[in-house]
Amino acid sequence: HAASGKSATFGELAKAASALPVPTSPALKNPDTFTLRRTSKPRVDIPAKVNGTAKYGIDFSIPGMLYAAVEIAPVQGGKLTSVDTAAADAMPGVKKVVKLDEAVAVVADSFWRARKALAALKPQFDNAGHGDVSTASIFADFDKALGAPPDMPSGSAKVVTAEYRAPFLAHAAMEPIACTARVDANGADVWAGVQDPLNARSVAAKALGLDTYAAD
Description:
about 220 residues, alpha+beta, three-stranded antiparallel beta sheet, two-stranded antiparallel sheet, 7 strands
């Protein structure tokens, strides 16, 4: 509270609030006094999205950075079984081909060179037994797990049933997935557009052998 210079934590306020009686008929706020609801506020993000100045994860860069292009197993759980790196290793700008359990990546001095070298790899993946999974097979598994529908009540004047289904859809981002990382003796900085930043930090720390609790 700027006027008095007093402050309190949320926990302190919650404890005080718990001692107050619960109103049985709370008065609703008069709509004429609304300051946010029922008012039109400017969307400060719209101009940048329209004129192309908005910065996405793939737009971020730092001096001297290298670029990686990644091909991941196309089926959930699939593993990399083989890849011939000779063609990519011989291409200009390529620094390293990295083999992962479920993917292969090419690191180069530009994204275009990394992407071009990745296309030359032609990696092979297994399908982890999921090669025949489809929307139809998923629905069949659901039906099997649910079993036969229950018996309808006898003597009902009218029975109404309905079934709603939606096809399997990938929960995928609309923008190209990208991540930039800077690693040095003091730790790591990671810039990425993710839905779960805390878990992303933990994954990055584990991969780099860092203590996540040392990060800001």
